[in-house]
Amino acid sequence: MRCVIARFPFDLTKSGVLESMKGIKPEPITGESVIIGRCHYPVKQVGEVITRQDRRDFTSGEVTRAMARLGFTCRTPEVATPPPALSPLQNASALLGSPDPLEL
């Protein structure tokens, strides 16, 4: 499959990626990851190995799209949902200190 990563064209195959990553120890995952074989690799590590380019030259999205098109499983980090927003009245009450229900 032909893909462009960091403005350079690459002809990638699933077997070629598997061969390139054979014997490479996975780094700790801090963001997006790709499952290659039985290992979870950071996307940037995979991109660096298969393109032989510096990690700063490409985005994780470019490598993720290429790996997904080749049939690899890609994962994005779990993002915690923020707590529900308070209404302006609830926010003001919280800032001023809500009255004790026993005093009412």
Describe this structure in words.
By secondary structure, this protein is α+β, with helices and mostly antiparallel strands. The chain has one domain. 36% of the residues lie in helices and 18% in strands. It has a 3-stranded antiparallel sheet. A hairpin with a 2-residue loop joins strand 1 (2-5) and strand 2 (8-11). It is elongated and about 65 Å long. The N and C termini lie far apart (71 Å).
What labels describe this entry?
single chain; 104 residues; three-stranded antiparallel sheet; two-stranded antiparallel sheet; 5 strands; 36% helix; 18% strand
Set out the fold topology:
Elements: E1 2-5, E2 8-11, H1 14-21, E3 33-36, E4 39-42, H2 43-51, H3 60-70, E5 73-75, H4 88-96
Antiparallel strand pairs: 1-2, 3-4, 3-5
Total helices: the number is 4
* N→C terminal distance: 71 Å
Order of adjacent strands in the largest pleated sheet: 4-3-5
What's the mean pLDDT score? 87
Unreliable stretches, pLDDT < 50, 5 or more residues? none
> Structural class, please?
alpha+beta
- Work out the number of β strands: 5
How does the major sheet shape up?
3 strands, antiparallel
Number of structural domains: 1
Radius of gyration, whole Å = 23 Å
What kind of assembly state do the chains in view correspond to? single chain
- Percent in strands: 15-25%
Helix content: 25-40%
Described by the principal axes of the CA atoms, the overall outline is: elongated
